[in-house]
Inverse folding.
């Protein structure tokens, strides 16, 4: 039985203290849930709601339940070298872990308050390290990590190339 | 012949006209009907106290995962605990009282008024039992838990939603060996927030007395009822207590309660004021010689009823 996609899980960070948390101005009239990816637009953070993003900035630390204006929000800033566990989609459709080719960098996408790795975006910030089941073999035995939406381990690369 | 209905008066203060039969000379005896009032719902609920208008209760969970492979030269993968669901009970103050006049007592030919005048302790008991039963009566629809679904439903999410959903409501069916096994399985196959086995063992089955015979057949038979093979019943069919209920409205729904710690009970009864009685007097009318007021304040709620496997019956 496949798992249900959840937001990315940070496995480790280059800094020993974890991701740096900052308070930032949020884009008006947007809502999100904690754990979602955000990216920058005109100096504000906004949730990832579409496919193909290659400019992820961080992870929302708290919910924004109702649309407001000039609000600020706490964001965990992603740093180059952060390792994450992510669920896989291809252009908005749940995909198997095998869809994500090891060593390739993909973009991200958001759907229903969940941020995925988007293997439909060939050039992005998330470099695939392994299928989630490779190191988490016993977790995989508990519930399939390879079936769509599959789980992969990735490394965040700040620069898109 | 047909019965004739009675007419009653309730005019506030109880005077000698309220129970006029006590003050007439035609009766040789008048008895106060007592009757028993079943107490049954409290054990379903964790009993809590507060001094505030609302009581919000939440859950948190350990994140229990299999440890991944990780070489010593790599950074250690990290894990974080999980937020759970929460719900809020709102306290409603409830009050009721009575007053009686001097003549209500002095004009009695048969001294029986005092035995029926103070019904307030019973009123408090009824209120409490109805509150308990109301949670169960509306548990498949109307009453919701902390996750937003009904108390008993098939679409509860695990706290870590990657593991999907779980059910504490079973396919509707009359109580028999087949449906009970499914309820037993529902408890035995229960998973914790991170989808690891967290089995629960039936402690008792709460059911309306209307299905007493069906429940008794399962609980008390040594061999399968209506089974020509004389197959022996597994001990699981009797390793629980029968808990016949009189306050339930449904004549078919039945509820398997699993053994859990008191704090793990999903249903909560929060008391702000436990039943309290005060004297009621009127300083401008000395003829009011007796009066009592009852006050209580409580709220009920369901956080997550994972200690139940329920069936709406058939």
């Amino acid at each position: 039985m496949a798992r249900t996609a959840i937001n990315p899980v940070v496995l480790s960070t280059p800094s020993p203290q974890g991701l740096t948390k900052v308070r930032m101005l949020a884009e008006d009239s947007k809502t999100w849930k904690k754990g979602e990816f955000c990216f920058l637009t005109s100096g504000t953070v906004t949730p990832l709601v579409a496919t193909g993003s290659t400019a992820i900035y961080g992870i929302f630390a708290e919910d924004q339940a109702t649309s407001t204006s000039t609000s600020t929000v706490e964001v965990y800033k992603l740093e180059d070298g952060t390792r994450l566990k992510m669920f896989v989609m291809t252009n908005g459709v749940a995909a198997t872990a095998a869809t994500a080719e090891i060593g390739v960098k993909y973009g991200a996408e958001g759907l229903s308050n969940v941020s995925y790795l988007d293997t439909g975006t060939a050039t992005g910030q998330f470099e695939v390290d392994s299928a989630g089941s490779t190191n988490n073999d016993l977790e995989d035995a508990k519930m399939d990590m390879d079936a769509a939406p599959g789980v992969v381990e990735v490394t965040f690369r700040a620069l898109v190339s | 012949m047909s019965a004739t209905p009675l007419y009653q008066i309730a005019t506030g203060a109880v005077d000698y006209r309220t129970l006029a039969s006590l003050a007439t000379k035609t009766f040789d005896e008048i008895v106060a009907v007592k009757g028993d009032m079943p107490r049954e719902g409290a054990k379903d609920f964790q009993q809590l106290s507060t001094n505030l208008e609302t009581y919000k209760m939440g859950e948190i969970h350990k994140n229990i995962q299999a440890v991944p492979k990780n070489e010593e030269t790599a950074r250690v993968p990290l894990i974080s605990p999980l937020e759970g669901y929460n719900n809020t009970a709102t306290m409603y103050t409830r009050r009721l009282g009575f007053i009686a006049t001097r003549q209500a007592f002095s004009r009695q030919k048969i001294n029986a008024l005092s035995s029926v005048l103070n019904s307030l302790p019973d009123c408090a008991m009824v209120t409490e039992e109805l509150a308990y039963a109301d949670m169960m009566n509306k548990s498949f629809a109307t009453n919701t838990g902390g996750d937003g679904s009904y108390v008993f439903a098939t679409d509860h999410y695990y706290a870590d939603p990657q593991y999907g959903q779980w059910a504490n409501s079973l396919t509707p069916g009359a109580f028999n060996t087949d449906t009970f096994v499914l309820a037993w399985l529902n408890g035995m196959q229960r998973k914790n927030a991170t989808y690891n086995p967290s089995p629960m063992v039936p402690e008792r089955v709460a059911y309306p007395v209307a299905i007493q015979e069906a429940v008794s057949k399962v609980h008390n038979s040594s061999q399968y009822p209506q089974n020509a093979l004389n197959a022996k019943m597994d001990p699981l069919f009797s390793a629980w207590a029968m808990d016949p209920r009189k306050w339930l409205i449904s004549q078919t729904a039945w509820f398997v309660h699993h053994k859990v710690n008191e704090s793990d009970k999903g249903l909560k009864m929060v008391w702000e004021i436990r039943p309290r009685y005060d004297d009621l007097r009127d300083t401008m009318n000395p003829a009011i010689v007796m009066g009592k007021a009852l006050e209580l304040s409580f709220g009920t709620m369901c956080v997550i009823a994972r200690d139940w496997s329920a069936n709406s019956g058939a």
